[in-house]
Amino acid sequence: MGDCIFCRIARGEIPCRKVYEDDELLAFHDIHPVAPVHFMLIPKLHLASLAEAGDGHAALLGRMLVLAPKLAREQGLENGFRTVINTGKGGGQEVLHFHIHIIGGGSIPPMVRHG
Ligand code: AMP
Ligand code: ZN
DSSP character for 57? Predict the structure, then answer.
């Protein structure tokens, strides 16, 4: 995907503050962090969103979920972290290249308030 911003970051055409990289995956700090630690984990393969994922992506998505806590610990999030996956317009997704936000290090409000 030529002009997808996260594909361009994955190809090294746009700089990022790298957290992790291997053949399939890249993690880098969000340019607009919402907490003291806020980075994103992406596949280098262009997948627009979770809604486009198929059975063939299962191993890749599994790798991402298993890697996330390891990277979070390495970034100092010993007490836990929030993962966020925005999907499509209805999910508020702005960059149409699948990514997992990993957020923590501050006071993280509950996602759902009761009453
Ligand atoms: P989403 O709303 O889930 O699509 O999140 C997209 C995220 O990408 C936002 O939190 C942006 O701050 C972040 N972002 C956009 N461009 C860049 C960039 N060049 N480097 C790092 N993060 C970016
Ligand atoms: Zn892309």
Answer: G
pTM of the model: 0.96
Residues 6+ apart with CB under 8 A from 4: 46, 95, 96, 97
Flag whether 90 is in a domain.
yes
- Whether residue 111 lies inside any domain: the answer is no
| CATH label of the domain that carries residue 71 | 3.30.428.10
CA of 110 to the centre of ligand 2 (A): 31
**Binding pocket residue ranges, ligand 1, CB within 6 Å:** 5, 14, 16, 30-32, 86, 92-95
Ion ligand 2: residue ranges with CB closer than 5 A: 1, 4, 6-7, 46, 97
Q: Give me the domain span that covers residue 24.
A: 5-97
Q: Kindly report, residue by residue over 62-89, the tens digit of the pLDDT.
A: 999 999 999 999 999 999 999 999 999 9
The total of structural domains in the chain comes to: 1
